[in-house]
Amino acid sequence: MSEKENHQPKGGQGQVIEAETFRDSVGTMDNTGARKWVFPKMPSGKFTNYRTIVAILLLLVFFILPFVKINGNPFFMINILDRKFFLFGQPFFPQDFFILALGAIASLVFIILFTVAFGRIFCGWICPQTIFMEMVFRKIEYWIEGDRNKQIKLDKQEWNSEKIWKRVLKWSIYIIISLVITHFMFMYIVGYEEVFRIMKEGPLANSTNFLAMVLFTAAFYFVFAWFREQVCTLVCPYGRLQGVLIDKQTINVYYDFKRGEGRAKWRKGEDRKENGKGDCIDCNQCVVVCPTGIDIRDGQQLECVNCTACIDACDEVMVKVGFPKGLIRYATEDEIEQEKPFKFTTRMKAYALVLLGLVGFLVYLLQDRGVMEAKFIKPAGSTYFLRDGKITNSYNYTLLNKSNNNIKLTMKVLNPAHGEISTSGNNTVLVKRDEISKGTINISFPEKEIKLSKQNIEIAVFDEKGKQLDVYKTYFEGPFKLAF
Ligand code: SF4
Ligand code: SF4
């Protein structure tokens, strides 16, 4: 139901339409633009229990994953500093940019498809911001300051000893948790060994890292202690995308206005149907429980993170008054308005098709991704030299080992024949796992073999068993010859 529809008076043609009264600012802002602090009531119920289980599992994954290794490589690491990335223990380098970019595009299409079908379910169930805010920081707040009413009372009261110790205790725990989150976040960037090393050596020996940790800890503290739901309502680009992604066939948390209106207070023994009243008893429980401070009965709003707290709150009320649960529930707008069941729409099918194509291409690229990437580049400004009837060119080589094993490589000129490679040692190079080896080689040809001043050549690299791992096409310079 649109906001406008929701606030139009019921009635037929010819009736005067009242001015639209719905707010045009976020729910946590008053008329002066000042922030309205949200004190949500502690949620409880079926969905809250499920969400707690999911949150515990995800938190376990977050805190365990940095220590998981596959074949000695981190399971997941984004080492921006060394430009090394690990996914499922497999190393990726900037040279794999195409694969990473395609993976990012496929993820984006997946997010779009998921959002078109399921709205902001991700925000309520999986998003780290919601999980840390609602399942960690908010729980500590309830534990120290009590539920909504006690929090409001504490907030209003003077800075007496009770308020001071409760706030100091809460903020101190928040700082410690922010510090822990920062350390684990760093583990995803530089690895747990490096973080432990920095911790062991202390801040004086690692002043830059220490400063970065302080800044990130302060940022996390600021977000979870003060900025809170405003991340979702003011900052998060995904939240802003909802307006263009969701439609009437998208599953979201909805208030069943057909069943609930006209809302009216509960009177024991009253026949509400007979008196033209809906199932909403206007108890406000769905509002006071909302962590983004909105009233879901106003329809779908950008602040709603699909946290399900209002579903649980309303279900509890419905049980108490003996009405069926689900006045607020996961549904599509079409389901509520026109009783049409959820269906996989043409739009969703189109996104699914694009996603399938991208994933197929990605799988092909991953399978085709060799274990070695070799490059032979002529140094800028270099040319050839002649000695003992041979023409020689120099090349700088870069050998990138993408496998989990050290590889002893042999370099050979494939084409044209009779090319010889010489290095300062021999033409065998040991390239360690996940590492890049760089050096210089000379390639020589008998003078008679080089017919052109710029001739195409192919240089290949082979492993110890003689398997060709990569081939690189470049050119070879020789003396200028007149062709007759
Ligand atoms: S909790 Fe349910 S009954 Fe109470 S105000 Fe909200 S929608 Fe109405
Ligand atoms: S409206 Fe309901 S689902 Fe949406 S954020 Fe508020 S409590 Fe959560």
Q: What attributes does this structure have?
A:
484 residues; alpha+beta; Immunoglobulin-like; 2 domains; 16 helices; 16 strands; 19% strand; elongated; disordered N terminus; binds iron/sulfur cluster
Please outline the helices and strands.
Elements: H1 3-7, H2 46-64, E1 69-70, E2 73-74, E3 76-79, E4 84-87, E5 90-92, H3 97-118, H4 121-125, H5 128-145, H6 148-156, H7 161-190, H8 192-201, H9 207-227, H10 230-235, H11 237-245, E6 252-255, H12 257-260, H13 285-288, H14 309-321, E7 328-331, H15 333-338, H16 346-368, E8 372-377, E9 384-387, E10 390-401, E11 407-415, E12 420-422, E13 428-431, E14 436-446, E15 454-462, E16 468-477
Helix pairs in contact: 3-16, 5-7, 7-8, 7-9
Brief synopsis:
By secondary structure, the protein is α+β, with helices and mostly antiparallel strands. 42% of the residues lie in helices and 19% in strands.
3D architecture notes:
The chain has 484 residues and is an alpha+beta fold. It has two domains: 345 residues, no CATH class; 106 residues, Immunoglobulins (Immunoglobulin-like), CATH 2.60.40. Helices cover 42% and strands 19% of the residues. The chain has 16 helices and 16 strands. The strands form five sheets. Strands 8, 9, 10, 12 and 14 form a five-stranded antiparallel sheet that branches. Strands 13-11-15-16 form a four-stranded antiparallel sheet, with no helix packed on it. Strands 3-4-5 form a three-stranded antiparallel sheet. A hairpin with a 2-residue loop joins strand 1 and strand 2. Helix 3 packs antiparallel against helix 16, helix 5 runs antiparallel to helix 7 and helix 7 crosses helix 9. The longest helix is centred in the middle third of the chain and has 30 residues. It is elongated. The termini are far apart. The N terminus is likely disordered.
